[in-house]
Amino acid sequence: MNVELTRPVSRLESSKATITALNSTALYVLAYLLAYGVHQLATAAMAHRLGIPLTVHVSHIQFLISNQQWWRIAVIAVYGAGPLLCLLLAVGFGVLFWFRGRGRKGRLKLLYFWLALHTFNLVVGGLIAGCFTHKGFWYVPRWLFISGGQTLPIVLAVVGGLIAVLVGYFSAVAFLQSHDSRTMMLYQNRGQLIFTGLVVPWLGGSAFLALLKLPDLTRHEGLLFLTMGLLVLPLSVASSKELFEETVPDPQKTAIASGFVVLTLLLALLWRLVFSTGINWH
Q1: Count of beta carbons in the 10 Å neighbourhood of residue 65
Q2: DSSP assignment of 72-113, as one string?
Q3: What is the end-to-end Cα distance of the chain in Å, rounded?
Q4: What count of Cα atoms within 13 Å lies in the side-chain half-sphere of residue 141?
Q5: Which of 117, 165, 166, 218 has the fewest Cβ atoms surrounding its Cβ within 10 A?
Q6: 76 near 143, Cβ under 8 Å?
Q7: CA–centroid distance for 136 within its chain
Q8: CA angle, corner 22, sides to 191 and 97, nearest 5?
Q9: Cβ contact 35:88 at 8 Å
Q10: pLDDT band at residue 281, thresholds of 50, 70 and 90?
Q11: Rounded to an integer, what is the distance from CA 254 to the centroid of its chain?
């Protein structure tokens, strides 16, 4: 059975699709800022604890020591702190969504869903991006086992990428349960839900975040937006085939999540103002 992407769309469906796209994109951006913020905070805190001075910028952390001043334990600890915390959070938000979110109405469960994906991507995507940039989480397997050279990070990145594809593919039901609208949940509207609830947030949200980080946007951060596709694209394919179309008994009315939209814009503005000139941490 195929999703009917060419079926005539009613005015009601079009309105709900637009609102779904706006809300999903806002929560996608909000979840990224929270996940990325935690990742950077953990990295900076570990470096500070080891006595490494640094400056936090919009899109990267600048460590104020030379390459020769690094030592093996410091490399592993500093570049591993953020991914380790994110991995724990990915599991935590996944469990929180499954046991506390999906059976309840509201948009908080969609935030849990995006937080789980973003924190997971900062681990797996960070390793994949690092194989191209030789930055970030790539340093951990590179220095954890010296004898592994650059081969081990590549192998782990490939394995991580395959795991990401599987996680995305088998998250279809979770994605569907993160929405309340009875209309958008109908299988005949599945193409719209996938486009407005997954594709638009991923592409539109990533474009917004890239603009937010300019001109400080690094190649490594840019690649993280692409690696999110390892989760989103298989999730889209699986969702198009999933016959599940139930929602909570008393779903929340489809409306613009003004509180989340405002919170996202304020956090993005605060992020830009605070880190645009760099925050020194000695």
Answers
A1: 13
A2: HHHHHHHHHHHHHHHHHHHHHHHHHIIIIITTS-SSHHHHHH
A3: 59
A4: 22
A5: 166
A6: yes
A7: 16
A8: 75
A9: no
A10: confident
A11: 24
DSSP state of 253: P
Triad 191, 194, 198: Cα angle to 5° = 160
The amino acid occupying position 186 is L
Within 13 Å of residue 238, how many CA atoms lie on the same side as its CB? 18
Q: Both tokens of residue 143?
A: 């220095």
Centroid of chain to Cα 221:
12
The answer to whether the Cα torsion of 140, 219, 213, 28 is positive or negative is: negative
Q: What is the dihedral of CA 225, 228, 230, 233, to 10 degrees?
A: -100
| 172 contact partners, CB below 8 Å, separation of at least 6 | 235, 238, 239, 241, 242, 244
Once rounded to an integer, what is the mean pLDDT over residues 104-110?
86
Q: Which of 109, 74, 106, 121 is nearest to 225 (CA)?
A: 121
Indicate if the pLDDT at residue 253 is higher than 80.
Answer: no
pLDDT band at 225; cut points 50, 70, 90:
very high
